[in-house]
């Protein structure tokens, strides 16, 4: 079912995650504190430029030994907030497992459109695929994104990479964590003052209305305690692209006792279901 059945009040309740989690300032503080610890411990190369936009930069974390592959992480924040510097906490578990991590920034609404941000994400993938190996970030490449970042990761599957000079999509797999896969309800959301979506553009930028052009597996995950709309968004993606689900996954990865903000912190734990599902995407390519 699309979001067309929702009233503006229902959209506000379903998509305002800060209102749904009153303790969100605590979790943002956790993002910052744990990210500082990660940067202090791993000393990444910061602000590598991958494109011309002011914020088209990434931080690169590499293991001491040659990396076995690269995770590209795309932060959330409704395409209008947050920063890669607050998401460095994703890196340690993967670096410890022998993988490089490219923590990606992008320009934000309303300075740019969501369509422009999708294009920036494509440029980040291109840079890692073409230049990452020279910087200790080799193939295979796996993408993971949270919230708006989950939307961006899914949109990479709807990209014709042949038109960008690749024989096939240059990634081995992806993760959409708490992703927004149908943007049409957001036309009624108060934050659309920044998104500037109309019905046609919202549909054009919705992964569920696009044809997947890559056979790489996609993990779809969501916190079990998220709003019903975010749970529904994950179900929509699951239903839309059945062939791109990883072999062996029989259901959406619904992570118990996690809401929209603490679910991404599961990447801190090497043994979490989220981390293990992401690592499995590398193993599937090996």
Walk me through what this model shows.
This protein is of the alpha/beta class and 286 residues long. The protein has one domain (3-285): Rossmann fold (3-Layer(aba) Sandwich), CATH 3.40.50. It has helices at 8-15, 17-20, 24-42, 91-96, 114-131, 148-157, 192-195, 199-204, 228-240, 273-285, and strands spanning 45-49, 57-61, 70-74, 100-104, 141-146, 173-177, 218-223, 253-255. It has an eight-stranded mixed sheet with strand order 1-2-4-3-5-6-7-8, with helices on both faces. Helix 6 links the parallel strand 5 and strand 6. Helix 5 crosses helix 6. The N and C termini lie far apart (37 Å).
Q: Characteristics of this structure?
A:
single chain, 286 residues, alpha/beta, Rossmann fold, 8-stranded mixed beta sheet, 10 helices, 35% helix
Summarize the model shown:
The mean pLDDT is 95.
Multimeric state: single chain
If strands are numbered along the chain, what order do they take across the biggest sheet?
1-2-4-3-5-6-7-8
User: How big is the Rg?
Assistant: 17 Å
Instruction: Look at the helices and sheets and give the structural class.
Output: alpha/beta
Number of domains: 1
Query: What is the top-level CATH class?
Result: Alpha Beta
What is the CATH third-level topology name?
Answer: Rossmann fold
Question: What is the percent of helical residues?
Answer: 25-40%
CATH-defined architecture: 3-Layer(aba) Sandwich
Distance between the termini: 37 Å
Poorly predicted sequence stretches spanning 5 or more consecutive residues: none
Total of DSSP H or I helical runs spanning 4+ residues: 10
Tell me the strand percentage band.
5-15%
The secondary-structure element order is: HHHEEEHEHEHEHHEHEH
Please, what is the CATH homologous superfamily? Alpha/Beta hydrolase fold, catalytic domain
Mean pLDDT: 95
Shape: globular
């Amino acid at each position: 079912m699309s979001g067309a059945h929702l009233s503006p009040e229902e959209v506000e309740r379903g998509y305002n995650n800060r209102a749904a989690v009153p303790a969100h300032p605590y979790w943002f503080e956790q993002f910052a504190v744990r990210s500082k610890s990660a940067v202090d411990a791993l000393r990444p190369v910061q602000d590598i430029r991958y494109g011309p936009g002011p914020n088209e930069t990434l931080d690169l974390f590499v293991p001491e030994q040659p990396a076995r592959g690269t995770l590209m992480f795309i932060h959330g924040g409704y395409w209008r907030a947050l920063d890669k510097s607050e998401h460095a906490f994703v890196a340690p578990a993967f670096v410890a497992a022998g993988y490089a991590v490219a923590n990606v920034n992008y320009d934000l609404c309303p300075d740019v459109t969501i369509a422009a941000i999708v294009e920036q994400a494509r440029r980040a993938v291109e840079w890692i695929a073409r230049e990452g190996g020279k910087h200790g970030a080799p193939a295979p490449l796996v993408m993971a994104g949270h919230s708006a970042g989950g939307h961006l990761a899914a949109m990479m599957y709807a990209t014709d990479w042949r038109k960008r000079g690749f024989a096939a999509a240059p990634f081995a797999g992806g993760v959409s964590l708490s992703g927004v896969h149908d943007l049409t309800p957001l036309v009624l959301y108060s934050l659309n003052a920044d998104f500037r979506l109309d019905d046609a553009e919202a549909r054009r930028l919705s992964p569920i209305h696009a044809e997947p052009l890559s056979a790489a597996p996609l993990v779809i995950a969501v916190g079990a305690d998220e709003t019903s709309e975010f749970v529904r968004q994950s179900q929509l993606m699951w239903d839309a692209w059945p062939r791109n689900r990883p072999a062996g996954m029989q259901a959406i990865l619904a992570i118990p006792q996690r809401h929209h903000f603490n679910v991404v912190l599961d990447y801190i734990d090497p043994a979490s279901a989220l981390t293990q599902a992401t690592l499995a995407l590398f193993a599937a390519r090996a």
